[in-house]
Design brief:
Length: 152
């Protein structure tokens, strides 16, 4: 079952059932019962590159950070971006764009209006910092040797 849009009247949700039929349910029922049934949670590890600088926000009076990773070795045609939430216990972890992040945690894939989001709430984290890039021009000329034989 997925929500496919607002239903007729205020505070209603139009949902598509597993058999393809559509029905309207009150938003309160959708929010508190049906939407939770539609969200599968598992614990998974991921390894991926941090795509952007961390985003800081507050949840329940706690400062947390979110980062987006592009996972490595993901099976499938489209590699999803995964939003990783780092809770206060990881406040001392230095993390930035381009770093390699190995992370394990609660993985959820909520379906909101037909779009699937990939979220991970971190329980363990390992960061490999990205290599420092040269800020000046790199002077590394390549000399061509016409007599070079690679030996194949």
């Amino acid at each position: 079952m997925i929500a496919i849009g607002p239903g007729p009247g205020p505070k209603n949700v139009l949902v598509e059932l597993d058999d393809g039929s559509k029905t309207v349910v009150p938003y309160a029922i959708w929010k508190h019962k049906l939407s939770k049934e539609n969200q599968i949670a598992t614990y998974k590890p991921f390894l991926g590159f941090v795509q952007f600088e961390p985003n800081e926000r507050e949840v329940n009076d706690q400062a947390i950070r979110d980062v987006v990773i592009k996972p490595i070795g993901y099976a499938g045609d489209e590699v999803p971006n995964i939003r990783v939430t780092l809770w206060p216990e990881f406040k001392d972890v230095i993390l930035g764009q381009g770093d390699l992040l190995a992370v394990d945690g609660k993985y959820t894939t909520p379906n909101v209006k037909g779009k699937v989001y990939h979220n991970l709430s971190a329980t363990s984290v390992v960061v490999i910092p990205s290599a420092t890039k040269a800020t000046d021009g790199v002077d590394n000329p390549v000399e061509e040797d016409e007599d070079f034989d690679p030996g194949f």
